[in-house]
Write a structure and sequence with these properties.
This protein is of the alpha/beta class. It is built from 18 helices and 25 strands. Strands 3-2-4-1-10-9-11-15 form an 8-stranded antiparallel beta sheet, covered by helices on one side. It has a 7-stranded antiparallel beta sheet with strand order 5-6-7-8-12-13-14. A hairpin with a 5-residue loop joins strand 13 and strand 14. It binds 5-amino-5-deoxy-1-O-phosphono-D-mannitol.
Length: 607
């Protein structure tokens, strides 16, 4: 989704702004722009294309104060005229993430006051509103007055042509950070844009407005009171967002999974037993009261929740429901204060998941746990308990290492719940801990199959559709494989529990429909084999990811990828890897933009 970078310094900040936008490209965007204040004028450069084009266009621009933006179109088509920053009468410039819900009404009022609109965006009303108040006060006060008229979500950066050393920023419903430098300050919607200049960061809170100057800054809360916010030192380093030896971030992130899993499991694997405290101190009192679990998440994160349902019910014996966050928030459900509401999110900023969590709390759910990859994100801050996945920054839009680390975190939740419910004796606990310690090495072994998967991918390059099959806890893995393939290769892919095939989708099977099957050596194997026969008998081409000892043989129309030995309950994690690689190599064959698939955004911060 949209990205914001801003800076005030005693040097030319244009390259910093552009580099910051480059770091935010992964979030997804369709146009970019920046504005600097120079010689008491606003100098704006915009491009309907990539940030690289903006870099060329702004190569000779100079400014010591500026704001920049990547836009993911919501109101108005992607075009230069709709790209941010938006300006009011050459005096005020604004960048904005989020959606202003009452913009039509404000637009009518501002038009009546004589303001001329030059874009189709909701953002332009903010620029004119600030302008309309500016004559009566400072830029800070004018911004605060404008914000009080807005309904909706925003993170904004504001500069004025006649105010050469000051930037105003604010957030409500969209993330925004303040970067603290020495004699210079920065704002950004994402830490990765700031790592080039500082690791010292203030996470602005809901409703905060900040006045940023060269030497200092002042933060005001929603009521306008001056407040102090802690300065954190980010754990991220610049290298963690570099591509290094890889061709794409997705490939890099697939290969980072052994390390990401080891990091996520570190504290547990170094200990001799599992304790609720890994989810936060209050887990000791909350978990014993929990009667069932409700998981809320979207997309890939929802798939990890679906796998966890199998684990939680089978291993811990605790009822579990998994809901799509955007559906849950709008349906009438029956609240039960003994439910543990678990939100899962890589970014911690997904608007649908955040809103579902807030809705759950409003209906009386006090037990909330976030499984998330971003510390200090909105979802983490809204939750009582938390477990951070330590996957490191995930730049590719297609989620990979975030997914497998979410699974690891959910497996820990399962084990802790099982222990509390008397379903995990000491031997079994040690056995699971041993398997978790071995997990990174097991994933590494699967990654070694990459060349074979790259070969397999060639069969998909000319196809338009694909079916993915799985059974039991591997059905959500098949769904995740289908999602990966469709989002980066644009091949239509659907997943079915294999037993469902004969109830409809079998009609689709012919020689042009590759059928991918996850085939672990588990209790459902024989059933799955029968389902695969049904496909073969109808001339379908099968691509089977089969554990050793399944005895499924390569034959005409049946391609086998031999997986390592079955990994028990952790098998879904291992079977995810080849599906990620398959999608990646099919996308390479098709020449799509792997890390930035069309129409998609990394953090979906609008509804
Ligand atoms: O940041 P989140 O985990 O909350 O994001 C949820 C989905 O938007 C996300 O998982 C999406 O489905 C993936 N990019 C797919 O690869």
């Amino acid at each position: 989704m949209c990205g914001i970078v801003g800076a005030v310094a005693k040097r030319n900040i244009v390259s910093m702004l552009v580099n910051g936008l480059l770091r935010l490209e992964y979030r997804g965007y369709d146009s970019a722009g920046l504005v600097v204040v120079h010689d008491a004028k606003l100098e704006r450069v915009r491009s309907a294309g990539r940030v690289a084009e903006l870099a060329t266009k702004s190569a000779n621009t100079y400014g010591e104060l500026g704001i920049a933006h990547t836009r993911w179109a919501t109101h108005g088509v992607p075009s230069e005229r709709n790209a941010h920053p938006h300006m009011s009468r050459d005096l005020i410039a604004v960048v904005h993430n989020g959606i202003i819900e009452n913009y039509e009404e404000l637009r009518t009022e501002l038009t009546a006051q004589g303001y001329e609109f030059t874009s189709d965006t909701d953002t332009e009303v903010i620029a004119h509103l600030i302008h309309s108040h500016y004559a009566q006060g400072s830029l800070l006060v004018a911004t605060q007055m404008a914000l009080s008229q807005l309904v909706g979500a925003y993170a904004i950066g504001v500069v004025a042509a006649d105010n050469p050393h000051q930037l105003i920023a604010a957030r409500k419903g969209s993330p925004l950070l303040l970067g603290v430098g020495v004699g210079e300050h920065f704002v950004a919607s994402d830490m990765s844009a700031l790592l080039q200049v500082t690791k010292n960061v203030v996470y602005l809170e809901e409703g905060d407005v900040v006045e940023v100057n060269l030497a200092n800054y002042r933060i005001f809360d929603q009521q306008g009171n001056a407040v102090q916010r802690a300065v954190h030192v980010s754990e991220l380093d610049n290298d963690s967002v570099e591509l290094g030896e890889y061709q794409h971030y997705m490939q890099k992130e697939i290969h980072e999974q052994p390390q990401a899993l080891a990091n996520t499991l570190e504290s547990v694997c170094n200990s001799q037993s599992l304790v609720p405290g890994i989810f936060g101190a209050e887990a000791n009192t909350i978990f014993p009261q929990v009667e069932s679990i409700l998981i809320l998440a979207c997309g890939t994160s929802n798939h990890s929740g679906q796998v966890a349902k199998y684990w939680l019910e089978e291993i811990a014996g605790i009822p579990c429901n998994v809901e799509i966050a955007s559906e849950y928030r709008y349906r009438v459900s029956v609240p039960n204060p003994k439910i543990l509401v678990v939100t899962i999110s890589q970014s911690g900023e997904t608007a649908d998941t955040l809103a579902a969590l807030i809705h759950a709390k409003a209906t009386g759910h006090a037990f909330t746990l976030a499984i998330c990859n971003v510390p200090e994100s909105a979802i983490i801050r809204q939750s009582k308990l938390r477990l951070l996945t330590r996957a490191g920054p995930e730049i590719g839009v297609a989620s990979t290492k975030a997914f497998t680390t979410q699974l690891a975190a959910l497996f820990l939740l399962t084990l802790v719940m099982a222990k509390l419910r008397g379903r995990l004796n000491a031997d079994r606990e040690q056995q699971f801990l041993h398997e978790l310690r071995h997990l990174p090495a097991a994933v590494q072994k699967v990654l070694a199959l990459e060349p074979k998967i790259a070969e397999m991918a060639k069969h998909f390059a000319n196809k338009h559709h694909a079916l993915f099959l799985g059974r039991g806890m591997h059905f959500p893995i098949a769904a995740e494989g289908a999602l990966k393939l469709k989002e980066i290769s644009y091949i239509h892919a659907e997943a079915y529990p294999a037993g469902e095939l004969k109830h409809g989708p079998l009609a689709l099977v012919d020689a042009d429909m590759p059928v991918v099957s996850v085939a672990p050596n588990d209790t459902l194997l024989e059933k799955l084999k029968s389902n695969l026969q049904e496909v073969k008998a109808r001339g379908g081409e099968l691509f089977v990811f089969a554990d050793a000892q399944t005895h499924i043989k390569e034959s005409d129309g049946v391609h086998i990828l031999q997986m390592p030995e079955h990994a028990g309950f952790l098998s879904p994690i291992l079977h995810t890897i080849p599906l990620q690689l398959l999608a990646y190599y099919v996308a390479l064959e098709k020449g799509t933009d792997v890390d930035k698939p069309r129409n998609l955004a990394k953090s979906v911060t609008v509804e």
